Amino acid sequence: MIERSKILLLSALLVCAGLSHVAGGISPYYFDILIGIGINIILAVSLNLVNGYTGQFSLGHAGFMAVGAYASSWLTLKYGSSIGSGTLSTTTVFVLALLGGGLGAALSGLLVGVPSLRLKGDYLAIVTLGFNEIIKGVIQNAEPLGAQRGLGGMELHTNFFWTFAFAAITIYVVLNLVGSTYGRGFLAVRDDEIAAEAMGINTTKYKVLAFVLAAFFAGIAGGLYAHFKQFIHPEGFNFLRSVDIVVMVILGGMGNTAGVVVAATLLTILPELLRKVAHYEWLPDWLQQVAENRMILYSLLLIILMLTRPQGLFGNFTGKRNQRLQ
Prior knowledge:
Distance between the termini: 28 Å
Order of helices and strands: HHHHHEHHHHEHHHHH
Mean pLDDT: 83
Number of strands: 2
């Protein structure tokens, strides 16, 4: 008998396939926002596995996204034309390039995770932040990757189906992993790492596993981003990009996948809504001027939300659920 979660995943993929025919007809502006929502969902849900469920604090998720973006772009640029120009050939190259970028990011996560995840708290955050800057510095000096000029020329392969199909797969994998025996290990590490070690749990193993899996999906998101924008630059994967993803996780509720999905959606739409508010002529002049500085208003709204809901949008629901599980 097929498990319920697999049925839900299959249903989600079928819905994505159906909606992809409709999504192609909307305006490019709204389509850009839609794809941004899907990519941010992948990034936030994968980081939630590390920061939320395992209780670590990573500030280098944009670095893994950069590895996936550049690796997949290099693969499609180098091998895309040599395989063929048919739809099946280009789709196969694209999917394999995405997986290659994800594996490259996962390998980077392993190289960083094994030595650094023995650290905790602020020390781990500093190490992952340093990794993010190292990746950006390497790319800026790598001529085959465009160096400071950036890398372009990728074909437009990313569409509604691939973006939200991978978002559904990310949610499926994270939820099923958390609900498994490995998930019990993640939660044990988060709740009390010393007690978990005393019970014989290899905490480093669970932290590295979460780190590598999160890096893999961040690499997939990077590949989708690169083949949608068709031009990438190292500054697009800087420290502020990592902070954006962390904010989505914290605002959604640490360890709550549904809340993180909602937060990723809201924080992708909110800056664009503020951009539109600035052009409403019926607003007072002072309010229009405030709206024009939309990132200041955006930051102010985040501060208000965190002051009023420090546990995140769905934090209380997470706590009650965990109490029932215990």
